[in-house]
Amino acid sequence: MTAAAERTAVEPGAPDILTVAREQVLERGEGLTEPQVLEVLRLPDDRLEELLQLAHEVRMRWCGPEVEVEGIVSVKTGGCPEDCHFCSQSGRFPSPVRSAWLDIPGLVEAARQTAATGATEFCIVAAVRGPDRRLLSQVKAGIEAIRAAGIDIQIACSLGMLTQEQVDELVAMGVHRYNHNLETARSHFPAVVTTHSWEERWETLRMVREAGMEVCCGGIIGMGETVEQRAEFAVQLAELDPHEVPMNFLIPQPGTPYEDFEVVEGAEALRTVAAFRLAMPRTMLRFAGGRELTLGDLGAEKGMLGGINAIIVGNYLTNLGRPAQQDLDMLRDLRMPIKALSETL
């Protein structure tokens, strides 16, 4: 069966999935089940606009019009011991990325520049399996320096898998959100990473949630997963109930096992975003890596009107994004207000 035929394969006489979703998700706020998400992912291109409109209505009803803007910076780049097949920062692959550390003044300046865009979130990221004492000490010093500089921005971290003691340390530092992506469906994960398990990632997220930090967890679309596994992943994320889900699209990186993978086609990417919105009506969905390559400028606007309500501005960890002002101008043109900084900072 071709991909197009697969997308239209529904049981004769079955109720229309978008009609069902309008009543179930838009009216009652109940996310779609795995079979329902799969049906949405199989919708033909000629129903894409209808799907995006419904996803936008769901976002507006259950999340509101505000958009959260975030910047990210890598405090430790490259040299990671894990073998995530999509990642140019793995020390196991002959990619051009080499290990480097960002000093405290550089971290503070990155936070200042991020805040100047109007962003309310600044995420400190490190390419590691999990943080050692040196890294945690640097993160603590960096957060203290950002606060001492009077930079009004919330701090998030993404430092790999954690122990309970490390979770508690981050809470004490004032980190309000932790990012740790599950990356893909549980059934597909062993094909993507072999040096640790999906369950290990889930355990870190459980500890983070129980400690009171917000959970940020998403993944990457286009890593060889089937459409069924995309539906599986959406529902697994819904079960986790994260505060935020970053939506990344694979950027094939030179030197990695995925360097020859094809980029996700634009309509497919938008259909996936909308399906994830219908699976998680109250969750923050954030445009992250790969959107520029997959969607282009027009696609970004379509995504903002198709379920997305958060965005990373500027560059990513090892890839260029587009100028922050371009995204801010887009939000202004769409009349989408930027979320104000929480008073609990």
Describe the 3D structure:
With 345 residues, the protein is α/β, with parallel strands linked by helices. It is 43% helix and 13% strand. The chain contains 13 helices and ten strands. Strands 1, 2, 3, 4, 5, 6, 7, 8, 9 and 10 form a ten-stranded mixed beta sheet that branches. The radius of gyration is 19 Å and the shape is globular. The N terminus and C terminus are likely disordered.
SSE inventory with pairings:
Layout: H1 3-7, H2 17-27, H3 34-41, H4 48-62, E1 68-77, E2 100-101, H5 104-116, E3 121-126, H6 133-148, E4 154-158, H7 164-173, E5 177-179, H8 189-192, H9 198-210, E6 214-216, E7 219-221, H10 227-240, E8 244-249, H11 266-279, E9 284-287, H12 291-304, E10 310-312, H13 324-333
Parallel strand pairs: 1-3, 1-10, 3-4, 4-5, 5-6, 7-8, 8-9, 9-10
Antiparallel strand pairs: 1-2
Poorly predicted regions: 1-6, 315-321, 341-345
The number of helical runs is 13
Which band does the percent of strand residues land in? Answer: 5-15%
Alpha-beta classification: alpha/beta
Mean pLDDT: 87
Give the C-alpha Rg: 19 Å
Q: Based on DSSP secondary structure assignment, what is the total number of beta strands?
A: 10
Shape: globular
Head-to-tail CA distance between termini: 53 Å
Series of secondary-structure elements, N-terminal to C-terminal:
HHHHEEHEHEHEHHEEHEHEHEH
Helix content: 40-55%
**Biggest sheet statistics:** 10 strands, mixed
